[in-house]
Every structure is written in C-alpha cells, then in structure tokens.
C-alpha cells in the first residue's frame, strides 16, 4: 500500500516549525522570471512537487534552471519553444500563466487547458476575456485541447474583472508589464501573494502600483534583476501547523510570517477560544484552550481563505457546539467530509438561503444545478482511527491532522497530493512529536 501515511494518533504536538516559502508565490515568480533579460535568483522556494513539475515543464521549453537547496536560478534567454507540453501542463494549473512570457518573446503561444486540483467551476473565460481586452487574439481548439494566442502591436487597453481572480490578476499584471501605454486593471484580487509578485517585478524595473481595488501599470522596456528575491512564507502551511497544535492539545510556535497574511485566520481562532500569541518578528505561538464552535464564510482576501476552511473543519470537531462552514469560492471544496466521517466526525450538509447566488459565489453558478456549499459540524467529538483517501492538496493536510488527533492508528492514502504543496511534511510533524511514517 504505497503512497500512504500510517499515523498513530493522540499525541500532543509541541515545538517549533520553520515555515517554508509560499507555494502560490513560488510558482508565479518562477514564471515571471522568464520575462527578464538577466538571470534571476529566487530564494526560499519550497521543494514541493508542484515546483518540480513546473521546473520540468520549463526545461522542456529550453529554459536553463538550477534548484539547489531552496534557491532557484533561472536563465530565461534560452527559451526555444512557444508550445507547452500537454501532459506536463495537465499536472499544474499555473501553466496558464505562461501566456505572458511566451507571447512577449514569440508573439505567439500555444497552451493547453490547465491542470491542478479539480475544485469546481473556476472559469477560464474571465482570463481569456482579460487577454482579449489587452489586445491578444486567442482561440480554443476543442479537438487538440489547446489555446492558440497571438499578439500584434503590443499590449494596450485595460480590463475590469467581473469578480476578483487571484491567478487572473497575476496574469494580467505580467501581460501588462511591457504595455505600450498605462494599463489599468480594475476590481483585482487583493491577496498578499500578488504583492510579492509586484515587488519582485518592481525591484527589477517594472512600474506597478496598487490603487485601492485597482492596479495601474506603466509599461517598461525591460526587466533586469539587481539582487536576489526572497519570497514570503506560506500562510496555508502556517494555518496547518497552528490547527495541528491546537487540535492535538499541544503548543506550537511557527515562524516567520507577517500578521496581515494570517489576520483573519487568527481572528477566527481567537473567536473560537484558541490560544494565539504574537511573539514578534513574525513568530506566533498557538496553544490549546477550550474551544467554542464558530461560523465561517470563505471569501477573497482580506476575508477567510478558502484553503483554511478544511483545516478549520477538523478543528471544529473538537469545539463545543455546532459550527457552520459556508464555502463561497469553489463548488467542490468538501471532499474531506466523507473521509472525516470515517473517523467518527459528526458533519452534515445543510441548506443556506442565498438571495443572489450568482453574485454571492465566486465560481460560475448554474441556477439549474444542485450545490452543497454549507456544512454543520457538531462537537466536541473524540475521533477514532480509520482509513481515509486524499482527493486534493488541502484536504490531504486536513485528513492527516484528523489522524494525528484520533485514537489509535489511521491510514491516509494517496498522500502524493500533500507533497504537491507541503515541504517536508512528515519530518516537520515528527519534529513536533507526531508519530507518522510514509510507505
């Protein structure tokens, strides 16, 4: 039974965790580096499967990349192909961002539908509309599964997102860096990971400014890196170990991550009665106290991150009362529910009346379809061991935490999902006193 964690539960997790670099920053800055006229050095890049997949994909395009320790050095000058491999692109969703460097270099790009976790109706149409608004000609070939894009005359215009899109905002920024005029992007995503991308580009000659919920970009001629760029820590990893410590009855310190990255998460923990202490310099202490059920609704930054809600669900199994989690960002984010029930968790789907669902939800809401967007969790519940199967990255970390707080032994299968986004997960859990091994 390969690709499985075997976990002995009921161990209090205590100690210190050094956070890794953020997956959702690392992937984007590596792609952005392809637009530079100089070699680019990126630091604090996590050694996770998604990064390895992206590097392999770029090497197929002719890019020279070295990955030593947590430092990536990229020489973008040797890109030889403007067509992205179908198989490798299917493994990673950010392959779609390659439109920016390939169009700027070749004026043409051939890119397949992106891969990654299947979390529901995240519309590519909004991204395609954005590219067209900037002057890109793009069509989809349903027979090959490829988008064919071309650019004549450079980037002009601007774009207003109907609903904020994290990846869409990043692609529009990269497309606009070399614009022929001032490009204004409106109703953009506010996630802090985007600010890392903006900082990396601005340090190398770009002229990108946030103005409230808009981004204004003055086109430049080239990007040249003057000093290595170090990415910020992963706020989902921070939440993962915080929840593991609190739910297990333990006491964990994590470092280092800015407060604004995790403020809404910490606020919800405090509301639930958990121990949260700011130790300064980006370090945080999380410790067990009596928990009370709270209600959560996911929303774009600065709201409660959708990637946090599976983690909070397992925490709420240990809280007194009934908590409600309402998911607004994705339509298929509760894959972990049936698996947690295998350990004895009391979780039920409930109806939540929404007046204008098409405006309320951030995915493409179909009025003719039946959705399950809200769950109710009853606690506290003493979980028992069992066998669970991981279906996506964040569900995987959630199930591993559930096994760590459950009685006796649990098996968590298909844990390769977890390696997509967590660096040294097994080693870090062991360092906190958890009993976990991979087979």
Structure write-up:
This protein is an alpha+beta fold. It has two domains: 4-20 and 233-438, Enolpyruvate transferase domain (UDP-n-acetylglucosamine1-carboxyvinyl-transferase, Chain), CATH 3.65.10.10; 23-230, UDP-n-acetylglucosamine1-carboxyvinyl-transferase, Chain (Alpha-beta prism), CATH 3.65.10.10. Helix content is 30%, strand content 24%. It has helices at 23-32, 49-60, 86-89, 99-106, 125-133, 166-176, 192-202, 235-247, 259-272, 309-316, 337-341, 357-360, 393-405, 416-419, 425-431, and strands spanning 4-8, 14-18, 40-43, 64-68, 71-75, 108-112, 136-141, 146-151, 158-160, 182-186, 207-211, 214-218, 229-230, 251-255, 275-280, 283-287, 296-297, 321-326, 346-349, 374-379, 387-389, 409-413, 435-438. It has a four-stranded mixed sheet. A four-stranded mixed sheet has the order 2-14-16-15. Strands 4-5-3-13 form a four-stranded mixed sheet, with helices on one face. A hairpin with a 2-residue loop joins strand 15 and strand 16 (283-287). Helix 1 (23-32) packs parallel to helix 2, helix 8 (235-247) packs parallel to helix 13 and helix 10 (309-316) packs parallel to helix 13.
What's the quick description here?
The protein has 439 residues and is of the alpha+beta class. It has helices at 23-32, 49-60, 86-89, 99-106, 125-133, 166-176, 192-202, 235-247, 259-272, 309-316, 337-341, 357-360, 393-405, 416-419, 425-431, and strands at residues 4-8, 14-18, 40-43, 64-68, 71-75, 108-112, 136-141, 146-151, 158-160, 182-186, 207-211, 214-218, 229-230, 251-255, 275-280, 283-287, 296-297, 321-326, 346-349, 374-379, 387-389, 409-413, 435-438. β21 (387-389), α13 (393-405) and β22 (409-413) form a beta-alpha-beta unit.
